[in-house]
# Entry
Amino acid sequence: MKKRALMTLKVILIGLLVVATIVATVQLGINSPVPWLLGFLVVTLSAYNKLCDKHKFIRWKQEYSVGIKSIDNEHQKLLGLINRFLTASRDHPSTFYEQEALEELVDYTRYHFKHEEALMEKHGYPDLEAHKKEHQAMVARVNELVEDYNIRGQEALEDTAAYLKHWLVNHIQVVDQQYSDYMHKRGVH
Ligand SMILES: [Fe+2]
Ligand SMILES: [Fe+2]
# Structure
């Protein structure tokens, strides 16, 4: 709630500064330093806002690739769904959109795990059971977070988003990388 209120405040402040810049330009003229100063504040605040947002979202990096096209595509979609969840929670005043985005993210995570496990099983990956356990632990933790989110709403959002971001990126970068070479040796790309 606090974060959303802060976000709304920032938007109102930028809006007020834009109006003040226009009024100052009309009243004092373009040669006055006041409209320039206000304009500078608008640009700086907007840029700062954008920069803050940028850090919240996850971008796909080549180092995340496991070198298997279908898996990379699914990992990219997962990161996209996390970003969608973050956007929904930031831009929509009702919880409906973030709930919908969270459900889609959870469903797609389950779908991806199933696909990944089936692929490992098909090719006799020796660490399949350990990998499955990692997936199961994540699903269990996400179920807890979803329950917490359903009870506490927006307040639980930060924990949920932080966990999903951290876990998925870490899992993709570390655990999923471990089957990469094995699969490549079996011609899976
Ligand atoms: Fe994965
Ligand atoms: Fe995995």
